[in-house]
Amino acid sequence: MRYDAPSPTRWNARSYDSSFGYVSAHGAPLVELLDPQPGERIVDLGCGTGVLTAEITSRGARVLGIDGSSAMIEKALAQYPGLDFIVGDGRDFTVAQPYDAVFSNAALHWMGREPDAVISSVREALTPGGRFVAEMGGAGNCAALTAALSTAWREHGLREPDLPWYFPTPAEYATRLEKGGFVVRLLEYFDRPTPLDECPNGAADWVRMFAGSLLQGVPADLVESLLRRVNELAAPALRRETGWMADYVRLRFAAVRR
Ligand SMILES: C[S@@+](CC[C@H](N)C(=O)[O-])C[C@H]1O[C@@H](n2cnc3c(N)ncnc32)[C@H](O)[C@@H]1O
């Protein structure tokens, strides 16, 4: 039930809020879709530093934040001392009493290769009729960024990195939800080009924050040149006059436990 986050999910919790607070800022419409009611019991799965956990709590719900990274949970507890946070793995967490809803922003694609295990854990955590409301990366998410990354690695004589994310198509994820015991009430699949305002060094900064684990096996003297090349390759698609733009594609859904 508890686990140490594997390397792809090792986060820099300290810089997460200051540099990448846009992740939770984009969660506002998802909180509206969740529509938390006073007194409801809700899990925030992959809660990170707890910004949206606190937002949902402010609507009167009782929220448990769960995250695989102990660094994230430590920061969440420090920022929001009155709220409940625990370290847990989305693929096999259990709860003592079923919840009214499970909410998840920008986290399910990190729980990657075992989506059915996540869906099954979420189902077990819900009362019948309970809601599963989430947003994650969808098929094609960050395609230009990841293509630049793979090419740069290859050009530097490195084995192409094994990317840690799971970005399903809407049809695939809806099928998994239905097979996993949910009725899909809403499913949206859309482009959301996202300004990387906090990334003066463009795609290279994004790689350091979100794909930093891929740099772990790279010889130190190659890193700068590798990231410079990622920027050169990604720039035609992602650099605008106003700054860098990530090519995010989102899958947002609301499903109900049968
Ligand atoms: C991009 S952050 C999003 C955090 C937060 N939901 C927000 O909107 O700011 C993704 C989070 O998923 C967590 N995560 C990744 N894999 C996980 C797993 N298997 N189980 C639980 N949490 C996981 C990471 O530790 C990270 O905090």
UniProtKB/TrEMBL annotation:
Residues 42-130 form the Methyltransferase domain. GO terms for molecular function: methyltransferase activity. It comes from the Bacteria. GO terms for biological process: methylation. Pfam families: Methyltransf_25. Gene3D superfamilies: Vaccinia Virus protein VP39. Keywords: Methyltransferase, Transferase. The keyword Membrane does not apply. The keyword Transferase applies. PANTHER family: TRANS-ACONITATE 2-METHYLTRANSFERASE, TRANS-ACONITATE 2-METHYLTRANSFERASE-RELATED. This is SAM-dependent methyltransferase, putative. It comes from Streptosporangium roseum (strain ATCC 12428 / DSM 43021 / JCM 3005 / KCTC 9067 / NCIMB 10171 / NRRL 2505 / NI 9100).
